[in-house]
């Protein structure tokens, strides 16, 4: 929106040409979403409290969580609103990738809102029936994958790349590409949701991964950088920097209120949407496997649940004291802040490893 105004004003004053730079608009997007989060945050929390939007606590969860009952949830709405406002202000609205990612964010956010609403109104900690949630996620995930495949305008946009190996690239046919896109979008949507179990645990890795994906998007959208770094060139992908920056700013703003002890919880409305957005951006910039590395915390949290369920069904025994794995460490005696910060540190390391793939090829 403001980009179009800046382009017109540039004819009158060259200083407005600054808005043509992705890095400058990315900084503005991050600052805008951060400022809006800090500004709207108290109002949103107060409104959620008035609506009695308190988080129901699992009866089989750690006892230390029982005191959190009644803490307002659905705070992820604050993240989505500020990201949306920031991107509409500073993004290039002629870019199809921008609209696709925003559509995915809103669609998965709607699923999360529905799930949270059931938890709050019906006081059911399990929320929406799993089959309905998965069906809706599948429809939106497949829709995004089909859109990307049928609008692909370069061979690189439908090729599967292996990090650390510059000569390993697998061209994908329609059904394979759509299946991978679906799996990453839906998979990471649920992975972030499973990670969102402690105060601030999910949002900081999300911010870190979003920043790193912004680096990949910038390099992939630039012909010179993509050639130098030997990564796929994806025309138009650079504009995703604005979305990544907006997520980073909104996430930090949300963390201001979500840090231990949390004043508000993200809820499914935020976790499902943010995870789906990370998966979608990774598919667009053709860095699916790098996302698995950088989002390793999300992956391990998901695997811990799968291992726990499989082990209990097959042997009747549990591998972990409780899944997802962050609860396992709580039950081992780790204070909640210790679990959170250590997981953050691991996430920083994994993101740095992922960024190293830009050069190590």
From TrEMBL:
Classification via CDD domains: GT_MraY (cd06852)
Positions of transmembrane segments: 12-40, 69-90, 97-114, 134-152, 164-185, 205-225, 237-257, 263-284, 291-312, 339-358
Pathway noted in the entry: Cell wall biogenesis; peptidoglycan biosynthesis
Subcellular location: Cell membrane; Membrane
Topology within the bilayer: Multi-pass membrane protein
E.C. number: 2.7.8.13
Family as reported in the entry's similarity comment: Belongs to the glycosyltransferase 4 family. MraY subfamily.
Annotated protein name in UniProt: Phospho-N-acetylmuramoyl-pentapeptide-transferase
Species per Swiss-Prot/TrEMBL record: Marilutibacter chinensis
Name of the coding gene: mraY
């Amino acid at each position: 929106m403001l980009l179009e105004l800046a382009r017109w004003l540039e004819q009158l004053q060259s200083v407005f040409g600054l808005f043509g730079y992705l890095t400058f608009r990315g900084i503005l997007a991050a600052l805008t979403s951060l400022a809006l989060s800090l500004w709207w945050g108290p109002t949103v929390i107060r409104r959620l409290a008035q609506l009695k939007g308190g988080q129901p606590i699992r009866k089989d969860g750690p006892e230390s969580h029982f005191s959190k009952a009644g803490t307002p949830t659905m705070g992820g709405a604050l993240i989505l609103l500020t990201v949306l406002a920031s991107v509409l202000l500073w993004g290039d609205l002629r870019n199809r990738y921008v609209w696709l990612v925003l559509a995915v964010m809103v669609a998965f956010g709607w699923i999360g809102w529905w799930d949270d609403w059931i938890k709050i109104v019906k006081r059911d900690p399990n929320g929406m029936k799993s089959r309905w949630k998965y069906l809706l996620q599948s429809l939106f995930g497949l829709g995004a994958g089909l859109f990307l495949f049928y609008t692909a305008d370069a061979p690189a946009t439908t090729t599967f790349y292996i990090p650390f190996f510059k000569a390993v690239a697998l061209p994908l046919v329609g059904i394979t590409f759509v299946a991978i896109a679906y799996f990453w979008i839906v998979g990471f949507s649920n992975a972030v949701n499973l990670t969102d179990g402690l105060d601030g645990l999910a949002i900081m890795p999300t911010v870190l991964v979003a920043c790193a994906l912004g680096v990949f998007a910038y390099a992939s959208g630039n012909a010179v950088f993509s050639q130098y770094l030997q990564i796929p060139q994806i025309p138009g992908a650079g504009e995703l920097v604005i979305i990544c920056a907006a997520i980073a700013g909104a996430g930090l703003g949300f963390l201001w209120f979500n840090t231990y002890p949390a004043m508000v919880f993200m809820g499914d409305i935020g976790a499902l949407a943010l995870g789906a957005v990370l998966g979608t951006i990774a598919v667009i910039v053709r860095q699916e496997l790098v996302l698995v590395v950088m989002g390793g915390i999300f992956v391990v949290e998901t695997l811990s649940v799968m291992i726990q369920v499989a082990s209990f069904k097959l042997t009747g025994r549990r591998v972990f004291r409780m899944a997802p794995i962050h609860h396992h460490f709580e039950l081992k005696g780790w204070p909640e802040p210790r679990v959170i910060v250590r997981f953050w540190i691991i996430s920083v390391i994994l993101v740095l490893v992922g960024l190293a793939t830009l050069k190590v090829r």
